Amino acid sequence: MIEISHQRASNETINEQKNFFLDNNRTTYLLDKVPDVVLILNEYRQIIYSNNNLLRLIDAEIIDTVYGKRPGEVLNCIHSKENLLGCGTAEFCNECGAYKAIISSTGGVKDVQECRIIQEGTGIAFDFRVYTTPIEIDSRNFVMFSIVDISNEKRKEVLERTFFHDLVNIALGIKSIMDILEIDLPDELSKYRKLIKTSATRLLEEINAQKQLIAAENYSLILDNKYICSKEIICEVVSLVEFYDFVENVEIKIADDMEDFIIFSDKVLLRRVITNLMKNAIEAEYPDGEVTIGCYLDNDEARFWVKNKSVMTKDVQLQLFQRSFSTKGRGRGIGTYSVKLLTEKYLGGRVDFSSSEEKGTIFNLYYPIKPIEKSTEI
To answer: Among 210, 164, 233, which Cα is nearest to 335's?
Structure first.
């Protein structure tokens, strides 16, 4: 167990430790080039060195004013004055990510934590990600403490969560109303009912696609694996893409030799991946053309494939799975990137493609087959 001391070094010791670092011009030069705030703390969690980035964070002019203080005191945390012993001694401090990380590295362990600080007087709320590393120089033990401001990242998370929640509720409301209004209408009105229902379905699909992508990139996506039918997945994908406007004159075919088998996977994610490939293929063939989809078993793998006749240029093929790359202009390029991300990071499969004048463009998805348990109902 780490022994925590709330004592402080004397002013003489702080000056000696400060000069120990300042005399090493090479070290201080390098640390001042780092874009983040970097502090060096002694065994009592006091600052004995800081790069100049701290001045911008605390809106100060002279770096000497921070020496001997603890991080929460320099940042003017509201809890740093609750106890006469200062930062790290209030009841709240046991839950502070910065304090936890510093204590870990005082005990010789690197750590990364998130830390929320409210400033005394201003009420400004900071969200930080802090990194701590134990360092030993000339048999002396210190802690390197760096701060990254993630306030914008946190605000973005909250806005995205609220935004998607509200959009989903609106789209679900429209779709539910249209389900209720399944009544006979004059021909001139019936087409509008179908159009609204189609638009609501597409809106829900796009919202959920973005939610899943963000969760996947943040490593917070939770799988719901079940035994599912390959034919059912294919038919659902075809039914879904038929809602899109650009499908109008593109012929969609299901391969005659498609096999029907059972696969253990997350149905929603698998459908999302195949749908993205279908949408890309249909857009490539627009305004008219042909897209074929199929699946079969190959030894211990399930293979799903999508084919269209258009051929990709070499430069497109080389950049295909990069995030934000698209042949459709700026602000696009999520489709094939998400296919690779969801397939390889979450579904345990792999993806490849070929594109040639002889065979057109074919995307292949490969997923492992898990034996069906006898007691499992499908």
So the answer is: 210
